[in-house]
Design goal:
283 residues, alpha+beta, Uridine Diphospho-n-acetylenolpyruvylglucosamine Reductase, domain 3, Enolase-like, domain 1, 4-stranded antiparallel β-sheet, 11 helices, 26% strand, binds flavin-adenine dinucleotide
Amino acid sequence: MEYAAPTTVDEARTLLADNPGSRVFAGATDVVPQMRSGRPEPSVLIDLKRIDRLMSVAHDNGHWTIGAAMPTSELTSNGEFASVFPGISEGAGWIGSDQIQNRSSLGGNLCNGSPAADSVPAMIASEARAVIAGTDGERTIPVADVVTGPGQLSLADGEFVVEFEIEDPPARTGDAYIRMTPRTEMDIAIVGAAVRVTMDGDTCTDARVVLGAVAPTAVRVPDAEAALIGSSLDEAALAEVAAAASAAANPINDKRGTIEYRVQVAGVLAKRAAVLAAERACA
Ligand SMILES: Cc1cc2nc3c(=O)[nH]c(=O)nc-3n(C[C@H](O)[C@H](O)[C@H](O)COP(=O)(O)OP(=O)(O)OC[C@H]3O[C@@H](n4cnc5c(N)ncnc54)[C@H](O)[C@@H]3O)c2cc1C
C-alpha cells in the first residue's frame, strides 16, 4: 500500500483516476480500525487533509461552506456555527472522544456509510448539500442522497466529497440532535433523532424530522413533520410525532438493543428533539 498526500483537489482527482483500488481518507478513525480488522488495503491511501479547501470553514452572505476533511473538533468549537446549527454541532460533538474528534471529519462520518453516523441526521434536517469532485468536474447533491445503504454510497469510482454547503436558516429556526447509547461515552447510537423547526409565535411553520440508526440509512419522517407543522407542539402533536417516528423506525435486533426498544426510543427521542429545537427557535 502506498500513501499520497495531494495538496489540491485536482491532484487528488488525478491520483484516484490513475490508481484503481485507491481510497481517500481524512481522519482515518474508521479506515485504520477497518484495515486492522482485516478489510483489504487500498492500492494507494490518499490523505485529504493537506488540501486547504477541504480543511476550512467559511460563512459568506448567509452561505456556509465546510471542508469535508476538517476535524470535527474545529467545527464544534466554532461558536458562530454552533449558535446557528446547534443540532449539527451536537451531532458532530458526539463522535468518539476529544482525541477522535481531533481527527474525525464530517466527510468521513458520512462516507463511512454507517446508519448510526452522528453528524448525518442533523445535516439532512438542515438540507445540507455535498459538493463532489470526480473525473468530470464537480457536482452538488443533497447529503440525504449520498448514502444508499450500510457502507454503500451513490458516489462513482474516483469521486470524493470536497465540502458541504448549508444555507443560514430562516429567523426563529432551531435544530437539535439527541442520541441514545447503551453506554454514556464512546459508544455508537442505537437511535439518533434530529429535528429542525421554524416557529411563528407559538406555531410551527416548518419542520424536518430525521432518524439515524434505525434503518439502513438515515430516514426523514414526513408524518412527524406534518404533525409538527401548524401545531404549537402541544401534547397531541408531540404524541403524533412520537407515533410517526416509531412507525418509521425499521431497526436491527442485536445485543445493544432490541427492535422493540429501538422503535420505542425513536418516538421518545423525536419528541424530545422537537421540544428542544422549538425552545432554541424561540430563544
Ligand atoms: C473509538 C471510536 C469511537 C467512535 N465513536 C463514534 C461515534 O460516537 N459516532 C459516530 O458517528 N462515529 C464514531 N466513530 C467512527 C468515526 O470516528 C467517525 O465516523 C468519523 O467521523 C470518521 O471520520 P474520518 O475522517 O476519521 O473518516 P476516515 O476513516 O478517514 O474515512 C471513513 C470513510 O469515509 C471515506 N471518506 C473519508 N473522507 C471522504 C471524502 N471526503 N469523500 C469521500 N469519501 C471519504 C473513506 O474512504 C472511508 O471509507 C468512532 C470511531 C472510533 C475509532
